[in-house]
Amino acid sequence: MIGKIVGGSVGEKVIIRIKSGERVDVGDILIAEDKETKEKFFLKVVNINISSLIARQFIEEMAGQNLESGEDFEIFDSQERFYRLCEAKVLKIKRDGKFYPPRTIPNFFTDVRKIEKEDLDFIKQEGEIPIGHLRLGTKKVSEIKINLPANKLISHHMLVVAATGKGKSNFAKVFLSGLLELGEYSAVVFDPHNEYYGGKGTKGLKHHHLNNRILYISPKAREIPGAEELKIHVEDLEPDDFFGIADLSQAQQEALSLLKKKYNENWIKHLLEEKIEKLIEEFDKKVSGVTFATLRRKMQHVLELDESGRGLVFTIEKREDTSIYNIIKQGIKQRKIIIIDTSSVGEEAEKIIASSILNKLFTSYRYAKQKDEVEFNNLPEVLVVFEEAPRVLGKEVLAKGVNVFEKIAREGRKFKIGLCAITQMPSLIPAEILSQMNTKVILGLPAPADRKAVINSSAQNISDEDVEIQILDMGEALVTSPFVKFPLPVKIFKFEEQIKRLQKDVPDIAIG
Amino acid sequence: MLKELINEIKNIYVQKEIPKEFFEFQLLEPKGIVYAVDGGSSIIFDGGSWCISKIKVGVVGYKGKKRVVEKIKTFYALSKKDNEHITTKIMPEGKIMKSKNLEDAHNDVRTFLEAKEVKELYSKTSADDIILVDGPTEVLKKNIVGVNKTSRLRAKSGRSLIGLINEFGSKKLKGKMWYYEIGNNEYIVKLHPKSKFCYKITALSKELFGVLAYFSRDPEIVGYPYPLIKVDKIARVKEDEKKMENNKIKLMAKKEGLILDYDENAAIMHSLLDKRMYR
Q1: Which H or E element spans position A108?
Q2: To the nearest whole angstrom, how far is the Cα of A486 from the nearest Cα of chain B?
Q3: Residue B24: alpha-carbon gap to chain centroid
Q4: Which ipTM value was assigned to this complex?
Q5: N or C, which end of chain A has less CB nearby within 10 Å?
Q6: Residue B152 falls within a domain, yes or no?
Q7: Cα gap A139→A137, rounded to integer Å
Q8: A&B contacts, CB < 8 Å
């Protein structure tokens, strides 16, 4: 026994007096067992206070005298008179072997103990993707592995939030390695820091024993055996790829649509190479010369094209071989994890690369669903992983117009496309988009505005976990999802250790 | 009006004697167990011409800082007017005591039971053990010490003796622990250098003051032995406890066909006014 219930209410929290010498941390799960009713209360520590039977003013006086005069007092019965009070929320109540929502609280003086492995017998083996161990406060419970259910989770979108250095990318790599193991799903990862595939000194998915299921696409493909070159011919781009992504006025957006209508796949080539005067004439002066000139400059800038119309990724050259989109499409059908290295291009170009790939992916899945049910059913669920998500899903960005990321967030579920938005500033993403992200992996957020945004948009009530979220250490996460019984405290695997472990077959208990 | 009274008090403060014999002493670690005995009592039902009281006698024992003994004994007493006296029957003892008035009967019982407990305890203690008693002790042995929080002792001037001694002792031995012998095994003692208070202590041996000082360093009441604070807490008959006992008595009486409310109402109006009007 580590404590006793001394107060609380159903709407608030229960208060536990902790026995001296017992260590309890925020995030710990405790059990209160009512011996009379045989009810078992699963409690989660959300706050800890120090308390005393001695009036505060005496304590302050005592500290002051010690500080100012070096006076040393001797405290008798200190364990009884100075103690810790835990505030805990009731997660679930187990009664007659069944779980019930917390509609009551334990009585005064109910014994409270730490959770034991047997208490977690209820955990069913539903999840398939191991992400870490159950975490109690700061301690991981090595016997209890936490798995997430991929089949429900992917198309319902995920949000991975954390401050810098808390382990966002590590989690994404762990999750992707789980997808690799399953072999039933695909993912498209836009990698602005080239950290997912792995390189000299850094472990990535190429070190996974199933790396034959990885398709790596990079502008520097020639230096990497087996990689595909990230080369996009502008003839494959559509005006939609720029809308809601590039900074375009209404007139400029209309001009792009008109160019496409008139020149089909050569619309960008014409914009870039035709004389402005001729363009004005061809469009019967419906578009001003300033608009064409501005669009040409923006297009060259966004696509990072040189004078000759060639850039690291984009080119106006005619495509003679299979487009990168078809390579990606093929990879998806083969249930591969596709990593697209965008580390060598600027932010604007990266967004256009992602937008064009996702527009085609979204269109092909939607088309398949509408036209060919068999083909659609054969397509795997795809998870789109995008770092620094407010760049494409931020309030300011979305105010300029709908882009493909927003479309996926709102409609992707119907077409088996899920978004894994990774960010350290969720408060920049509109609340309705955040609430579409059904599963949230929270790895520590110091900023109150970001915590508020995540807490308010979570599927489960985690308002009491504010303190825990604030103080989560590297690799410690809180996972909320409609597909787990309660917000799960997890110690996320270290990716490097995970890929080693995957070589072995470890029996697990999983939470679904 | 008040100014006249203050002027009168001035006469009391005219110095007629100057206490000089103050002795410093040092803190001493206890060798044995230090016990504290205290009682608490209260009328839990007042029937006007009779009353029932609850009396608790507590004992705590400390070996160094660790509490090794904590026990409480509970008694009930029925006091009623019997010719010229008030007779009180103590339960479960069965002993009958006489008192001068109904209101103080429970205090007499408490004092008796405290002394009884001290005697019993003394018979079981070893030579190194000490028994602290709250107030004047009827049992004066080598290892029994009575600590009086207040005293009505007067100096020749009419001033409070403890106040006078405290004033002079605190000036003479500032920042020290000291005692002043007033005779007849009674001392005025300052048990902590930072304490504003002195206590009248009854003891056969002044060597015990160092041990009392050891226990007087707790910040809750600096300068007062902590075991006496603790035993006071456990022996006190608290207000909600009184209410609970009162209800219990009325219920039990009702089962026996007795309605006690009328008699109680005849006795409690004063306390009711206190509660309703002067809170």
Answers
A1: none
A2: 41
A3: 26
A4: 0.77
A5: N
A6: yes
A7: 6
A8: 32
